Amino acid sequence: MLFAPSQKSAISSAASLLILAQTISPVAAGCNSYVTTGSTGNQTYNNYALYDFRHLPDDVSGTPVYAQDENFPNGQFALATSPFFNSTTWTNYWSSIADLKKADPNLSQYVDTVFTPLNVAIAKDNSTTPDGETVLSLTTTRLEGYSPSAQIQSNQKFMHASVRMSARMLGPPGACGSFFLYGDDNNESDIELLTNDTQNGASMFHATNHPSQDSKGNTIPGASTIAPIPLNGTQNGTQTAPWSEWTNWRMDWLSDRTQWIVNGDLVVDKTWSPPKIPSYLSVNMWSNGGSWTGNMTVGQTATLQIRWIEIVYNTTSDNPSSGTVCVVGDNNDAANINAIDANPVSWASPRLSSSKLSWIAIIGVSAWMFL
């Protein structure tokens, strides 16, 4: 049963999720393994999950509550901002991180970064999308001496994956939003967005495989690339997308490379140091007043909003399962992502086709899977 401060609110949340389960779209089924398109080669994966945050009921939405105590990481049992984050719908797959990154002026980090579940919320999407949609909201706020921030992490490790996310970032200069695959400091692939990062009027993003520095602190050539965010297949001048617009981000971690695909364009391809060990997927929004992120004015807030996260992945080897192979395309129309709970690894349906690119759909959802 969903956690709630009272039995009444628990029943209300459960009922809303039941309604959601009964009114969602058909699910594509019959897939034993998956092939991705739009990147180098035909990488095959054995698992698929889609986490769609756009259609959560009103009673699990909330407004971020900012930590007022820089020692908050010692109080990791603080309540989440929404009953949703204490339900198995969330906790079976994700964790909201509580952690403290101390300021270090030697590294140009001038205030503490406090990662707190209080800055992870379900909020209304106030963009021009249909009324009533919700988003996963990660926020960071500049307070005197520290910055409450947000991070989520997958409970499962992956061994090669195609990770996709529909997201945008709002707020003043001085914050960083990122999503990354992390095994250790020498096995990491990431996308980073800075709210102060523009060049010649174009919004930029950072694509990096680690390590990005050698033992002497020197930058390793080819480890990191700063590139403009493409819009509709273009990458020049004012035709690039600002990070405040909804953007489809994709990072493919293959055995011999990592590739960054943005709005359908293959923008960066790196053979330098793709991760070699199982890695978690993390998403965060943070600030530290440093020279790299910039320094937000005290009281200002920046937000990373996420519509959905899609993962096609392996956990051990790249050997495909026998049976039907389905194709996972690079669909840039977020409206074509269907919200549904299809199986124990997802509360959303795969937008998949069979090896012949034909759609397969069946109707049938167990509502209790949301409870």
From TrEMBL:
Residues 1-29 form the signal peptide. One of its GO terms (biological process) is carbohydrate metabolic process. Residues 51-317 form the GH16 domain. It comes from the Eukaryota. The keyword Signal applies. InterPro entries: Beta-glucanase-like, ConA-like_dom_sf. GO terms for molecular function: hydrolase activity, hydrolyzing O-glycosyl compounds. The keyword Signal applies. Keywords: Signal. PANTHER family: GH16 DOMAIN-CONTAINING PROTEIN, GH16 DOMAIN-CONTAINING PROTEIN-RELATED. This is GH16 domain-containing protein. It comes from Gomphillus americanus.
